[in-house]
Structures are given as structure tokens and as C-alpha cells.
Amino acid sequence: MMPRRFLALSILVPVLWTGGLSASVDFNRDIRPILSDYCFTCHGPDERKRKGELRLDTAAGALKGGETGDTIVAGKPDDSELIHRLFSTDPDEIMPLPKTHKKLSKGQKELIRQWIVEGARYEEPWTYVPPRRHPVPPVEGNDWSENWIDNFILTRLQRENLTPSPDTDPVTLVRRLHFDLIGLPPTPGEVNQFVKRWKEDPSACLEATTDELLASPHFGERMAMYWLDLVRYADTCGYHGDQDHSISPYRDYVIDAFNDNLPFDRFTREQLAGDLLPNPTVDQKIATGYNRLLQTSHEGGVQAKEYLAIYFADRVRNLSNVWMGATVGCGQCHDHKYDPYTSRDFYALGSFFADVDESQHFKVGSNSLPTRRPPEIEVHTKRERQRIAELRKLLKTARFADEAARKQVETELAALEKARRKTMITVAIKPRTIRILPRGNWLDDSGPVVEPAFPAFLARNNPPPASARLTRLDLANWLTDPDAGTGGLTARVMVNRFWYLVFGSGISKRLEDFGGQGEAPVHPELLDNLAVEFYESGWNVKHMMKLLVTSRTYRQGSLTSVVLRERDPYNRLLARQSRYRLPAETIRDNALAISGLLRTDYGGASAKPYQPAGYYRHLNFPARKYAHHADDRQWRRGLYVHWQRQFLHPMLRAFDAPTREECTAERPRSNTPIAAMTLLNDPSFVEAARVFAERILKEGGKDDKARLEFAYREALSRLPDGKEREIMTRLFQAAGKEFKANPAAARELVSTGQAPVPGNLDAIEHATWTTVARAILNLSETYTRN
Amino acid sequence: MNPAAGVAAPQLPVMNDQFINAINRRTFLKGSSYSVGSAALAYLLSQDAGAAPKWKGVLDGKLHFAPKAKRIIHLCMAGGPSHLETLDHKPELAKLNGKPMPESFTKGQQLAQLQGRRNQLKCLGPQYEFKPYGECGRLMSSAFPHIGSIADEIAVINSLSTEQINHDPAHTFMNTGAVIPGRPSMGSWLLYGLGADTDELPGFVVMTSAGGGQDQPIAARQWHSGFLPSRFQGVQFNSKGDPVHYVKNPAGVSRETQGDLLKTVNGLNNLLGKRQNDPEIATRIAQYEMAFKMQASVPDLVDVSKEPKHILELYGAKPGDGSFASNCLLARRLAERGVRFIQLYHRGWDHHGNVKGAINTVSGHTDKATAALVKDLKERGLLEDTLIIWGGEFGRTPMAQGNGRDHHIQAFSLWMAGAGIKGGVSYGSTDELGYAVAQDHVSVHDLHATMLKQLGINHELLTYRFQGLDFRLTGVEESRVIKEVLA
Predict the structure, then answer these.
(1) Are residues B213 and B345 in the same domain?
(2) How many CB atoms lie within 10 A of CB B255?
(3) Which of A173, A435, A604, A733 has its CA 20 to 30 A from that of A566?
(4) ipTM metric
(5) Please, which residues 47-76 of chain B have a Cβ atom closer than 8 Å to chain A?
(6) Beta bridge pairs of residue B408
(7) Of the residues A109, A124, A139, which one is the last residue of a structural domain?
(8) What global pTM score does this model have?
């Protein structure tokens, strides 16, 4: 039962959110999803497909009824045509029509009847109601909460008669924090330090470590990994010949932005409209690369009109997925079937990009590598410019111990100065005319001309009509202004994703679609408060991440019980933390870090790790030969790996990294034999194992026991238990015997990859430990965030 | 295990896979104590589909029709084969050879590379004679005598059209039924719906070969699983290097050592799985076992050295040459081993210039092996439950582009054989010049619906919830099964 005090409180909460708190039927939670699934296709927003003049997605439409009369009579289900039709067994009467193959369950029908009994109240879709701060529910006798997030979580758990899990142990927690915030494992030293601080004061320890990690340059890299999925960043143009295009400075801009904690509203403005800001800086120009990230084609004989339509739709899909949590792309051919977006909204939104010069693609496109994609500029990124300034100052002011020291600085400076990179940017031109394409048909020029405009139904969030044509800058401002635009909605879309990054799934499960076919949030008030907190903090991303990871909810153990699994199989209520496989790039980074091979250079051109020979043989115009980097770039973080859209590196692919043709807000976490073979046999992992083995032999102590302990501590931050030692020892002995019988094979194994082969190690011993190291890198625990 | 990690929740009795799966199924079906919307439920299913150790298909044997086919071999003639030099007999076009293309055909129509020359469009007569083949006596191009020799096995459709005029989007449309990237390919749909009859090989295998025309690129998106879990994506077999990426042990590692390693990893994962009650780990153990099996079964599959000489000669295959002929032979071996969807791309059909010579070359690469595959399958009793589809992503213009032909989406042809297909029939027709469909139009979605029908699936019922919509391979518009080509 709910505590009395909270019941009283809930009266203050708007109707919209009380559904979860009472036993009565809640429209948004219970009814809208059914109507949306079963009815809106024919009785929804799409006027052209509407049947029987009946519209069920709005209260007005439902009240008005259809051709056959009183569809819904509040309080009187037996007088309501809807109930009659739903419960009918007559194939000519029953709804949905049998030919749709859609059938409501008995429970669903009863729910609708109950809803009508209770007055058939409609509520506005939660998605479009701007978030507002809700009172934090007090919890009696609560010494569990660390911050207000926990009060919301705990209240809900109590209502469900569940209790939160105890805090996890500090070792698991420090690993979790490192993977979540910087995407790298902690070193044994970092683990020890954390455990020590934790014993003194857990909350202070967590806060201090969080601050350190948020200040690490790797924080920006970790956040960029996610952002680049959203905006579909890749190193190649995607269609047909999939040629390289010049864009890596944009990737570095994103990393810098997260590291510098650039407020999210500015981040949005610079990407969508940096070129329209007064006197744009180099970084703001680089940021406009966002508008150039879409897939483009160089196919000979490419139909300009066809591709203009493809590019246009691509931009709207991405913009709406990333910032609006909406699937406006549906409007290309018809009004949205489930959400209030019209086809006109689709074209009006796309018109904001009518000033992006597309025609140059068609004129100067070439089959060269990289291809040419004007407008492009040659730049140093922000960090590069800072370093150059530093080095120049050093040369002017510092006294060098000797000529060699000076020379070293000069060399670095010279190399940096030369290392300007080309990058695609946006430069506004006179906007081209945009017409609504009837049914999306790009051959049809008969549709009306549209100008940039915000979706009509969000009108109450719309600024008064401007005298001048609206621009991309107006769009960016509208997206991030909580008062005069839809900033609150944008904030809600984004905080839901931050939540996903540290809890494994969103408060609303659907990270890219908050629309009618999305899922109502499990903790709506919490999601609202986080959204308000986000923009009121000045769109402070680090502040939000810190708030999340310093909650008590975050600290919980991830173990589950039979009861909990039955009650909450997908951990939506968060009576525990989540456990899941690391993302593809992090699996790579983790193995390289454990081995000691990882190079943590920041930014720069993309890196090319080993890749199966001939993998690009289907690419043409021009034919492609992949040459992996024969120097240190080989061991760069996964984030920097060359992203070939059509043939993404097989390792990244095996672990669900997206090809980045479209916005990806949530990656699947598959579990396949191909992934197993990749971890077992990809030379990047075999090389990591043999270099790790070299460390085990050199740094792990004299005997095998100490060495195995060293290996476990490095890879898993813990020691092996008795049973584990036993199993590992068996492998160690079997492999040792094999390699002793075949020393040539041992030498082959320890020569995998391009890292120098140590001359001072016994190859048989090295190969044996390499086998143990391979086993460790393949342990589920090694690449699972717990 | 981390000693401290164990305190967080009550420990459970040791769990075996069966128990874990039973729990999963129960909780999935029941939902949970709080409301899970149907959208969420479908999503949960998708996650299960991503992780269950052995996937029996979402239909789990409950087919909508009695199936005729167990598997599909799609011979994708990539580049856009000319229907006018293969399967669509157009004597009137021969008469107009070199003469202006009547404007009534092309007015207001979208053309590809010929767009800029639309005032000088000339007809190009068929470059090969059409002859009657088989007992059915169907007129087919004399450039493909071997395919002619199986005329009575195949049903020809002359009335297809597509929506995309460039290679990449046209392939995407043919494979996924949509132009927007990110939709699952047909092989992925089949795996999702039916699973596969093998746990030692991937259920959806793709092979490619080239020769005969411009090598238009083929993107891996053509066999991607799109929004379906990635376990349903096609696995490409390579003709050079490892047949499957990372299928070989690292240099210096024997099968025995690899086996020891696998045993160790699975043993340790098993300990962890018991401690954490994590079904994901049980799945992982199963997948490592399958990986180990694949490491043996894939090299065995591609080793055709034990095939008798007459079989190699029938196909015209030289082991390891990466040719279309070798791929056809491998397709048979894959079919024998329970693979659900086998897709062979031959990238040699983009004939903007010299269509006559190019057709001759591409025939040399593909004609004999194609017929051999059908015959060999029939000989082994496999043709009756194997559906073969031969065709490209679009057709080519009756208008000349020099001495070649441009891309053409208004009409093209393909054929099907095996698994309940009526041999010897032709369906649909084009106008007298082969420009547009004149009768019995067949859409790409109709083709997909027919294909699914033969596998026992109602195309309207195989759906997957993504971004709130129930997607299906055949899209939202109505499509129909082409019953006229079914026995």
C-alpha cells in the first residue's frame, strides 16, 4: 500500500502523471497504446486513410463520432458503438477488421470498457506536455536516498512491495564507473585507491572519483561514441562507391564539446547553424559538419532529383530522431499515422535545410579517395590549436637542457602544423524551392511550395510568425528554448538517453521515439524533473551525469533473484543495477588496455586496425585496398576506427556497432557465434593476449600462482578463487604440453601482430601464457559491465 | 568471484539452461506486475530473439500454410540484366533497331544516364536470337543455352517493375522491400521467422563473384538484419582468405588447444553464470560451442576437393577459384546442410555499353553453373523443397546507350524454379518494345509474398515491431501471391 502522505501529495500532481499511482484506468498508460496499435491506422491523424469519418486519436474526434453514430458515450459502454464493435463476433461488424489480422485480447477490450465506465477521459500525449518540476516524494524512514532521484525510485519500489538491492562492492562499482564515464577499465592502482577511499566515506569517495572521471579527456570520448551513433557519423559517404569523405574534425569537435562541457543548447546551435552565428569561430564551422553527415552518392548517372529527395528525407529523419525523439520521417509520403505530425510538417522541417548546398555534390563528385565534397575547409581542431600555441610559447620562453630537447619540441610543432585536416562544413546559400512531394514521389512537381516552419500542432510552443524566412538558427533555438520553443521536450529526450547510458535502458524505453507508438515512461515525474534539471542547470551534461551516478540507485548490486526476475524481468523499476555486455568499441579498448597496447592519443584522423584481407573487394569506384596502420595508430581506441559504412570493421559489426546509415539511439546487444569467433581469433585480440602474456611474465612475479593472480587483477580487478585456479591450471598445463611438442607453433602464436616480439622470453612459456591470456579476454566477466 | 559481490541479493540454487529459459518464457508471457504496453512487449521479444541460445523462429514451427519450400537460393544477377537479351522476346524491337524510340513510350518518364539525351533516343534491337526451349517451347535467348535446357523446370515472370533506378537503392528495395536504409533483408526475415535447420553453419549465407560487366559495388547492407537482432544478419563467405571472418584459429593454435581454451572459457563462464543467475551467460556458452563447431564445419563445407569429377565438370567449377560456378556448387552443399537462405551475387550485369559482348561474357560465367545447380538439386531430390530465384535489381532500356542499354525500372524479368513452382509457364508481359508492363504486373512485394507463401508464411503475419510500427517485408500496401506460377 502507498503511504498516506504520498496519496495526499499526488493530488497536486497533474492528471497526466497520476495513472501509475491509482488502480483506475489511465488513458495514456492503458488506453492510448491500444487505440494506437489497433485503431489509428484507419481512425487516426492521417486524414487520407481515415475510414468512416471517425477519428479516435483526439477527444474531439471521438466525441463527434463517426458515420455510425455515438462512438463513445462516457459512462455508458453499452450505448457506445465502439464497445459494440469491439465485442462483436459478426465478421462484418467486428473491429479491427479481420483482414488486418489484428485482434484485441479480452483484457484489452475490458480495459476499454472500464475506461468508458470511468468517463472515457482523454489526456494529451505525455510526449508533448512540457516537463515541469514535480514535488519530490518524501519517503518515511528513508536513509537510503543519496539524492532526489532515489526518492522517486524508492517510492515506486515500495508501492510494488519491492526493496532496493544493497550497494554493490566497491570493486564492481569502480569498474562500473570507469566503463560508464570513460569507457575504459580502471588500473589495479585505481581500484585499490577507490576501495581505500570507499572504506573511509562511500559518498565522498564516489563524488571525488566521479569528478576525476568527468575531468578526464576520455569522458568526452565516451560520450562522443554515443553522440556519433545518433548523428550517424562515419568516414565514408555510404551510397554506391562508399568513398571516404573528409569529416574527422567534426568527430573531434564532439569530443571537445563534451570534455569542455559545452552547454547542450550551444552544442545544438553550433551543429545545426554554426555558420549562421555572428562571426562563427573555426570550431563552430567544424560543428556544422553535422549537416553533412548524411549518406550521399557518387553513382554515375545518379538522378539529382531522386537523391535530393533522399537527402531531404534523411535530414528530417535524423533531426527528428536526435532532438525531438520523433519519427517525422513518416511524413515523407503521408500524415503520420500515430502522431500529430503532418506531411506538411515533414516538408516544412526539411525546408530549414534548403539553404544547404546540395548541388555541389552532383557537380564535383568524384571517384577519388577521399572524395570531394565542397564546401570543405582545412582546419586544426581546438585541442590541436591549443597545443600549437603551447609549443610555440615553449620555444620562445623555455630554456632547454640541450639541443635534443629543443629539437623534440620543434619536431612535434612542425608535425602538428602540417597536420591540418579537411572537413565538410555548411555554408548557407540561397534556399532552393521546396515542394511537398505528393506521396513522396520526386517526379511530381505539382505539390505546393513550403517554407520553413515548426510543426503546427506544437504551435503553443511556437514563437510568433517571423517576418523573415525562418532559418536553421531559429530551428536550433526553438529546439532548445524551454519557454518559447520545445526545449523542455528536447531535454526530456536527452536525459532519457543519459539515463540509458548508466542504467542500461531508458526511463521511457524507446530512446528515439517518444511518439504515440513509443512507451510511456516508467517514472514520468522523475523523467520530468531530470529534464527540468537539465535545462535549468544551463544544459550542463556533466552535472546530469554526476547526478545520475552519485544516486543510491546507481550504486546497487546487479544480482537478481527469482522473485525479482518474475516481477521485473527487464529491470525497469531498478530494484537493482543492470548488467550488460560492453559496447563494441569498449570491448576493443578494454582488451588493448589490459594488454598495455592501448594508445590514448586524442583526436586526429581515423585509425585502421587489422582487418581481414579482401574485405573491401566489393567496393569499387575506385577499387579499394585496405592497409592497416603499421605504427602506433594500430592500437587506438575503437571510437577512432575508420568507419566504413558499407563494410564496417567486422569486429565492430560482430558486437552490434551500427553502420551509421541512420540514427541509432540504442544498440542491440546480441550474443552470437560470430562474436565468439571474433574475440577468439581476430588478430587484434590475439596480439593483445600475447602482449598481455608478456606483461604477465615480466611483471607478474616468479611463480605461476603469482602470475595468474596478476593476470586476474589486471583484467578483472580481483583474484581467482580456488575453482577458477584449478580450471586455469588445467588449461595452462595442456597448452604447455602442446607447445612443448611444437615449438614452431609457439613461435608463430607469439609473433601475432606487429608489436615487437620480445627476444628474451621463452617462446613456449610465452605461448602458454598467451593461451591463458586469450581465455581471460574471452571471459564473459571481462567484457561485461556489472 | 569477487567475495563482496555476493552480498547483494539472495543466492539461488544452481540453475541450468532449461530452468533459466523456462523463467524467461514465463516472465515474458506474463508480463510483469505493472503494465507493460504491447509495444514494450514486442521489444522484449526482440531482446529475447537476440539472445536465446537456439532460435527456432518466431513462428516456432506454426506455419500459416503447408510449406513447399524449406530453403531459398537467390541467384542475384547484380547490375541489372537486360530482359531483352535473356527472357523477354521482343521481335518488334528488332524491327525498330536503330530507329527513333517512339516518343509515346518515354514521354514524361524518368530515365537514368539517357536523361540528358532524351531527344535522340534510338531503339536497340535484341542482340541475340530467341529460340524455343524444352517441351514447353518457351522462347528464350540463345545466349543462355544451358538455362534453355531447364526451360521446363522454370517459371518466367516477364512483368516485374521496381521503384529505384540506381543500383544501390534498387538492390536495397529488392532485398528489403523498402528504400529507406535500415530495414531487414529477406534472408534475415526468414531466419527471424523460421530459424535454420543447422546449428553448425549460419542460417543465411551470402557469396559473391564477378565477371562480365562493370563491377558495381555491393554493400553489406544488402544482407543486414536492419532493425532485427544482428544474429539474423547474413554471413558472407569469402572466396579468398578465411571463408568466414575469423573462422580459423590464430597462427600456431591447433584445434586441440583451441578446444582446451573453449572448454576453459565455458567452464569459467558457467561458474559465473551460476553465481549471477544470468541467462545471458548460458547463451554465451552455447554460442561459444557453436563457434567451435563452425570452425570445423565451415572449412569442411568449402572443401570441394572430394566432389566427384563429373560434378565439378557439370558446374564448370575449379575448387577455390571464387567463381560463380564454385559458388553454385557451394550453394548446393549449403542447401544440403540446412542453411535457410543462400544468396549468390554475380556482379557482371551492368551493360551500359556493348551489351552483345557483355552478355556473351556473363553467360560464360553463369549459364552452365546455373543450370547445373538446378539439375544437381533435382538429382538429389532437393529441388522439390528448394526455391530458386534468378534475377536482378532492374532491367534495361529498349533504347540504345551507344551499343549498350541503360538502367530500366518499368519492366524486367526473372525466373523461379523448384519448391512448388510450375515449370514451363510464363507469366505477365510487356508492351511490344519491352518498355513497360502491359499485362499482369508483378511488384517486388508480390515476389516477396510469393516467396514467403512457398515457405508456409502469410506475408501479412510475419511482422516485427520497430519504432512503434509493425513492419513486414512486403510493406504497407497490399501485395499478392502470384498463384499463376504455383503448381
Answers:
(1) yes
(2) 11
(3) A173
(4) 0.89
(5) 47, 50-51
(6) B395
(7) A124
(8) 0.83
